[in-house]
Amino acid sequence: MIELHGKKFIPFLTSDVIQNRIKELAELIKKDFFERELILIGVMNGSYMFISDLCKAIDREISIDFIRVKSYEGTESKGKIELLYGPQIDIKNKEIIIIEDIIDTGLTIDWLFHYLYEQGVRDIKICTLLSKPGKNKSKQKINYNGFSIENQFVVGYGMDFDGLGRNIPEIFTEFIE
Ligand code: IMP
Fold it and tell me: pTM for this structure?
């Protein structure tokens, strides 16, 4: 059990389980993109550990860049998303894979689709380590899904609780007493 900001979390997915699934996702991507240009766009900050392990497991020529967005949780502006950093590499007319840590409500992914197509991207695939199908309202297809989980809050492996927990190599879930 760990505690972050006084909130308790218990082990959920071990390093081995995460790494084995990443190897499987890497194989699928390698196969689907055989002899095709491969561009990964990581969504900061949460995806940094995932994209790091995933790109090593893919083990071929890859272009990598990042996008960073900020979402507001205020009552008035719920669902409003602002761009903080956009990809600097040439994505016009290219096929890209968005790399997410977790898809929750799906608002971020919907916003990213809209923004990236506006930038001239030709096609977008989604790769996420975790998804919450019970909460995801997006209609976008998740092409590469690590694990589907319940409507629970998780931390670790890049994901934070109020700024803490990103450096934990495993994934923990909130402990409901
Ligand atoms: P969405 O727009 O609701 O799909 O939210 C996506 C973003 O919210 C993710 O990229 C995470 O940064 C954050 N998020 C959603 N659920 C969790 C969670 O359980 N733990 C930590 N971060 C989360």
Answer: 0.96
